Amino acid sequence: MKKGCPYGTHRVIEPKGVLPQPALKIDNDMEIYDNEILIDVQTLNIDSASFTQIKEEAQGDIEKIKEIMKNIVATRGKHQNPVTGSGGMLIGTVEKIGPALEGKTDLKVGDKIATLVSLSLTPLRIDEFLETRKDIDQVDIKGKAILFQSGIYAVLPKDLPENLALSVLDVAGAPAQAAKLVKPGDYVVVIGGTGKSGMLCLYEAKKRVGVTGKVICVGSTDKSVARAKGANLADEYIKVDATDALALHDKVKELTNGRMADVTINCVNIPNTEMTSILSTKNEGLIYFFSMATSFTKAALGAEGVGKDVTMIVGNGYTKGHAEIALQIMRESETLRKIYEELYG
Amino acid sequence: MKKGCPYGTHRVIEPKGVLPQPALKIDNDMEIYDNEILIDVQTLNIDSASFTQIKEEAQGDIEKIKEIMKNIVATRGKHQNPVTGSGGMLIGTVEKIGPALEGKTDLKVGDKIATLVSLSLTPLRIDEFLETRKDIDQVDIKGKAILFQSGIYAVLPKDLPENLALSVLDVAGAPAQAAKLVKPGDYVVVIGGTGKSGMLCLYEAKKRVGVTGKVICVGSTDKSVARAKGANLADEYIKVDATDALALHDKVKELTNGRMADVTINCVNIPNTEMTSILSTKNEGLIYFFSMATSFTKAALGAEGVGKDVTMIVGNGYTKGHAEIALQIMRESETLRKIYEELYG
User: Fold this and answer.
1) A2 located within any domain
2) Which residues belong to any copy of the L-erythro-3,5-diaminohexanoate dehydrogenase N-terminal domain (chains A, B) (predicted)?
């Protein structure tokens, strides 16, 4: 049996020497190396920015969506959207565990897991498309995938429905980071606060700001804002187009009496919202970009361009304990659980 | 006289409603609004990632470089490289000051200034190309530019040569951020440590880590590494290709006895060095991406892909006092001043 690198570099076909995520093409042959785990895939949960782009390109047509997804995997050996660069995650059942992992993993053959590493670096083979749930970015397939030794995962909890757990785990990094960053007394603006990751961030932020703080939810439709309001997720609600930097700046200014946000969390899955985040944040404040549609140069040059001294953090999908934190919200809040079951379950 | 917005939105032609930096096209008519400053431009200092791309596209040919630059300004009304998204900065003389700025600016007509906002949002007109210094990314021109009310600038110091000041101010954000982030006892890795921003970061890091810390300089050529070594800028030196994540990981592991970097500063002006930064940094460490060639998704998904809990910061070109901090290095260190005069002066 062939020996593999913990990071999966042995699968990289092009360009040589890079890791699987930045690679253009990786080997998706399903014969495992000694330190790999073979997964029998059940569901792909495509990254929101990626699936939005695919749906637009396919003009909503399901067959066309499947064709685009098939082409991506055929070209790259992994489901990495060439436009957005992003992937998603999957659930499936452990089929084989490489012998080198013995004693190093608590997984057993037959365990149902969600991979918490991106599909943008996961060797994947799609044999057949089953159901496509295009409103929640999920696609059931017959297929196989490989988890590398360094790859993170969560065994699916028994007390939560699978699709619900998958939806929540997909964005687990966001609420965990919000929990780490928000302090008592902070004014927090969550742009895209009515979406999947946004509502979880609002929930964690609200727990932490206390009575002297303020959490502001920004959404783009009447319906989604009303939903967040109904769940009492924030102190204030703003309906605005997230690309309209000046409009949101004016509203945040009004609601914070000119102080602006101490922490802004961007969870919007559309491009060109960097300046909106920058203008809503006070000098020496913090911006956390969780959106995969974020442009590095637009953020860096945007802040410089208006002379704003803000710390801007790249949303790392992983932080210690993120799966536990996110799943726990579904146990703590019956209201949120109902919303997530209805929207993504 | 027409009234302008502090952020320059009145100049945006396409798409409507965005700020000048993300805009595809802005108005570069040189009749000023009431809150604008007209600058008689002397030198453009093109962002390193941008100029590297332009030189490659032009295959080093000076006339072709000029043509590409001319086309960029003709298409966008500003010097924003469509491939890298980045700009650069300029020096010039204040020619006119809008009446609305009276009492709000300390500038006078005739002051020689460097604009510290990016060329990627600065209305610019190039009338004639004079000298092109392609090895230091500088182009002398006849032309005009506009500084918005929110635009930051530095009056050029009288005790330093102009080109030297411009080169240093161009990367002023990097050493100022390094000074803020590095703490006593830290192990610091500066990737691209032998370049213009890298050497300034090494200098600031070395001042702060103290005897219990360690500063590691990473460069790609024997010559540049020897130069940094000659100036005693770091404790250790590594020559490696910055896109080779695993090679640098192994060397940093060896030099830090397995601890890895507390802080990694990325100043490399080539793509695909995100994973190199991530693998060199310890869990719960900090990565500061100053390079404009950084990809947001590659950083975010790369860290998640290897299960690394690191805080990744988008290099903001502006932070309070950055111009003063950077220029002061040239006064403090005779060795560095000599190197910068020779390389960029």
Assistant:
1) no
2) 10-157
pLDDT in tens, A38-85: 999 999 999 888 999 999 999 999 999 999 999 999 999 999 999 988
Structural domain containing residue A332: 173-343
Q: Looking at beta carbons, which residues of chain A come within 8 Å of B297? A: 84-86, 120, 292
Cα Rg of chain A (Å, integer): 20
Report the length, in residues, of chain B: 345
Residue of A114, A85, A101 lying closest to A149 (CA atoms): A101
Q: Kindly state the tokens that stand for B121.
A: 């949002």
The string of pLDDT tens digits covering residues B117-157 is 889 999 999 999 999 998 889 999 999 999 999 999 999 99
Torsion angle in degrees (nearest 10) through CA of B154, B155, B161, B166? 30
Strand, helix or coil at A132? strand
Q: What is the dihedral of CA A179, A183, A189, A193, to 10 degrees?
A: 20
Cβ separation of B304 and A314 shorter than 8 Å? Answer: no
Q: Which of B156, B183, B209 is the last residue of a domain?
A: B156
Q: What is the CATH number of the domain that holds B267?
A: 3.40.50.720
SS3 assignment, position A313? strand
Residues from chain B that touch A297, judged by Cβ atoms under 8 A, are 84-86, 120, 292
Q: Which residues of A touch B151 (CB under 8 A)?
A: 305, 307
Answer whether B112's CB lies under 8 Å from B50's CB.
no
